[in-house]
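Hi U.,

Before I forget, here's the chain from the pilot set. I'm dumping it here mostly so it's searchable later in email.
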Amino acid sequence: MFVVDKIYKYDLQKIFYYPKNMNYRLAHNSHEGIKRSHNEDTYGIDADKHIFLVADGMGGHDHGEIASALARDYIMAGLVEDNDLSDTIYRANDAIIACSLEKQSQLPMGTTVAIVRFDAQQCHCAWVGDSRIYRFRDGELTAISSDHSYVQELVDQQLITRDQARNHPHRNVVTQALGVTDNSELNIARVTDLWQPGDKFLVCSDGLTEEVDDTEIASILSQNLAPGELCDQLLIKALENGGSDNITAIVLVLDQ
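Structure:
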């Protein structure tokens, strides 16, 4: 099932240079999983301006699907107008908080977000929460993002190992999320790096990484397959391994 809630196609050219000759192949997929009755994940794609986003509405909170949709709409609309990435995320956060207050939700609406934007030479990555960004290059998988989560803090402090984190009872507790964290305390993580032909990028919700570890992800992305097949294999593996949450993945293969 291939679903894109909105694909933005604007023709605005400001100070951000979008490469005309950037060749890539793209696939995307989203699934509610085996144990969820509906899908609170969403994603946004602007194929012309090379912007890719995944948002994961927080399960257990009111209207998680609304929070993820608001994050998608505000951030994608801001980025296609070449607004600053952090400022755009802050505005999305304000909008989600305002919507939650208007609806008088018992719990605040929340969502994670992971964004990749490409220019002529670089990939600009940003995230809040535990949705992830990976790059596969020369046979090696690199996690560009680092989770804003309780167990990641334990790993960073060397109190538990990465293997222990995967089975920790509080592994789903995020420490940052749009709609939940005020802008004054919001930690928007950002990384800028060079991209090169042959790279493969994966942007995904934790419904994928909860079920498929980095070794399995690397094994799948190492195959010389079309992006659609890679995306399908990732989704199928997550379902086979339990499918306990919504699963969303965007796969890009940058051609030589």
